[in-house]
Amino acid sequence: MDESDAALLARTALGEERAFELLYARHATPLIAYAQSILGERGLAEETLQDTFVAVWRGAGGFEHRSAVRTWLFGICRRQALKRLRGRQPQTAPAEWAEGVPSTDPSPEAVVIARADAAAVAGALVTLSVQHREVLDLAFGARLSQTDIAEVLGVPLGTVKSRLFHARAVLARALPAEVERTAG
Predict the structure, then answer these.
(1) I need a labelling partner for 105 at 20 to 30 A (CA). Which of 20, 53, 142, 164 fits?
(2) Residue 83: what pLDDT?
(3) Is the whole-model pTM more than 0.70?
(4) What Cα–Cα distance (Å) separates residue 162 from each residue in 25, 90, 100, 156, 182?
């Protein structure tokens, strides 16, 4: 039976390298994908992953069990990635992301997204703001719950729901144009 993340982290806090290696093996792939989605470069994402696990090694004993270990790891990774972004030109989100209240019903936009092929989605993703890409990465790439996403991002749950709603809408609007380009 696999050890829980909490047990591995507790053993890591005691200096057990094997537990640390298992924690790394279990979480490195989604963390590097998340870092790359924030930074846009594989090399910077790899450096961020290294910094993340250095922080985990050093801070394992300080884990307070207020969240899942996985959520804690994504929070550390996010902070490390944002440190690397300092000094770069900040991107601003379009005003429409803050409009309206998200619906829990599947929308026409969600149907379009579900039917689009991966290449079209990848092309449309580049049209999204950083906030929209990040929330989609955490929800669909890392498969974190909305509550965990709110904790990682340090924002209220309602903000996460709003960002997800508007990210899907912006992505869905971008997809028809992207599908036409790839088909033509």
Answers:
(1) 142
(2) 92
(3) no
(4) 33, 21, 8, 10, 30
Domains identified in the chain and CATH numbers: 5-85 (1.10.1740.10), 95-183 (1.10.10.10)
In this model, does residue 91 exceed pLDDT 80?
no
Contact predicate 9/53, CB 8 Å: no
Instruction: Specify whether the CB–CB gap between 119 and 166 falls below 8 A.
Output: no
Question: How many angstroms separate the Cα of 14 from the Cα of each of 7, 25, 48, 97, 154?
Answer: 11, 19, 24, 45, 29
- Contact at 8 Å (CB) between 181 and 117? no
Asked if residue 49 lies in contact with residue 27, where contact means CB atoms within 8 angstroms, the answer is no
Q: What is the DSSP string of 109-171?
A: HHHHHHHS-HHHHHHHHTTS-HHHHHHHIIIIIS---HHHHHHHHTS-HHHHHHHHHHHHHHH
Is a pLDDT exceeding 60 seen at residue 87? no
> What whole-number distance in Å separates Cα of residue 175 and Cα of residue 60?
42
Cβ 35 vs Cβ 45: under 8 Å: yes
- What whole-number distance in Å separates Cα of residue 64 and Cα of residue 99? 36
